[in-house]
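Researcher: I'm preparing a figure for a lab meeting and need a structural model of a single chain. I don't have an experimental structure, so a prediction will have to do for now. The sequence is pasted below. Please return the structure as C-alpha cells so I can convert it later.
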Amino acid sequence: MRFFISYSRSVKQETGKVVDLLRAAGHEVWWDGDIPEIADWWATILDKIEWCQVFIFVVSEKSVQSPYCLKELSYATDRNRPILPFVIDDHTRYTIPPEVTPMRNQWFVYDGNPARMLDRIIQACSQIVWDKYPDLRAPRPIEPNTGSGSLVKLFQQAVSLAEDGRFDEAIKRFRNVASLDHNEWGRECQQWIGRLQTYGEIAEMADHKATRRRAQEKWANYVKQYDDEFDPLNVRDKLIDSLPKRAHSRVYDILPAPFAWVDIPAGQVTLEEGGYTPKGGQTFNVPAFAIAKYPVTNIQFAKFIDSGGYREKRWWTSAGWQVREKEKWTQPRYWTDKKWNSADYPVVGVSWYESLAFCRWLSEVSSENILLPTEQQWQRAAQGDDNRIYPWGNDWDGSRCNNSVGKDWEQNQTSPVIQYEGKGDSPFGVVDMAGNVWEWCLTAYETGSTSLDGTDVRVLRGGSRYDYNTLDFRAAYRFRYYPGDWDDYLGFRVSRFN
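Model: Understood. Here is the structure written out cell by cell.
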C-alpha cells in the first residue's frame, strides 16, 4: 500500500514512529522528511499525493491551522483519495476541517501507542471499497506561501530571483510553475533552469584562477546555446579580462600556410533525402558564415598535437575522450607514414572526434568561434546559388580534382591541398571540395543534430581520391560514418560561425 502522511511539525516525533512501523510492515510511505534538498518542495508534495493510494491526515491543533496541511488535504480530496484522519491531541480545542467531518465514523484518536495506530490503519484500509475511489483529474493548487497570484506572476517572480543572483530559489520557483501547468510553461521553465544551472557552474569556475580556462571554454558553449544577455554576476567581463594574450591571436597567426577564410553569404541549400531529410529532399536557410579555403593539412594538425591535443581532455567530447583512452590514440593513424604525411597534404586517418577536438583547441587559442561545418554550410560553400552539380559546374571533369574515376585519373594517394586551386574551385573560391579526402561535417546523419557529444553517425561530404563513381563527387552527395571511424581517405576542414 502507498501512503501519504500530512502532519504538522509539532507532532513530527509521534508521526515518525508510525512511519517507521508502516515501512517495517512492507508498505510504501511518504512524508515531507523524504524531500531531497535539491527538489522543488511543493511540486514534490503534489507528485506524492497523486502517487499515493491512501491519504493519512494527522489532525492536530497546528495541522488544522497550517495552510500547507489544509491545501494537501484539499488536493487529496479533489483527487478522490481515501482519507484516514487520526486525531493526535485534544480536538475539542479547535475546529475539524470540513474535508474530514464527513468521515467522523473513521476518526481514530491516537492513544500514544504507535503499534495500535498501525493496526487501525491496516484495518481501515481493509474496509475501503476501492471502486469508489477512481483517480480524478484536478488542477494543481498554487503553493500556499506564494499567494493566489497567477502563473504569470509566479514566473515573473522566478525571473526576478534569477536576475538578483538567487539561483537556487529561482530554480525552485520555475519548477513549481512548470508543475502547475507543464503544457504551457514547462518548456520555458526548463530552459531557464538549464540556463541557471550552467551559468552558476561557469560563474563559480570564473572566480578561481585554477578553473578559469575551463570556464572560458564552457562560456563559449553557453553563449551558443543561450546568449550573453543574462549575466547578473558579470561573468563575461571576468573571463575577457583573464584571457591570456595568445587567446587574442587570429587563426592566421596560429596555423601555417596555406590558410584563408572564405566568407559565404546567407542563402539556401536543398539536401537530398536520407536520414533526417524526408523523401524528396528538404530546403534549408543557411545564415552567413566563413569556411576554410583548404582542408586542414598535416603541418597545421601538428600544431594541435604539439599543444597537447591528445593529452588535454577539455578539448574532447566525453564520448571522444573515452574512445581516445580506450584506443590509446596519440596521433592520427597514418601520421608517420611518408605516403600521407607531407606538410601540405590533408591530414588523414582522423576520426570525427579528433577533428572536433582540433576545432575546439583552435577556438580556444584564437578566440574565434570555430567548429566543423554543418552539412548545410558545406553544401552552400560548394554549390553556391545555382545548384550546380559539382563545385566547378554541371559537367564532370576528372582534371579538376583528385579522384579514381577511370584509368586516366586513378590515384593511390592524396595530393597537396593547393594542387587543384583555380581548377576545381567552388563559386565562392573554396578549394578542394571534391576529391582528395572525404570531409567530416558537424551534422548527425539520422537526426540532423549538431550536438558536440554523443555517438551518432556523422555526415561526410566531397568524395575522395579513392572514389571511382562520379556521383560521389557531387556537391549534394551525402555520405556518413561513425564518429570514431578513421581511414586514409577521411579528413576535414573548419568553419567559423559568425
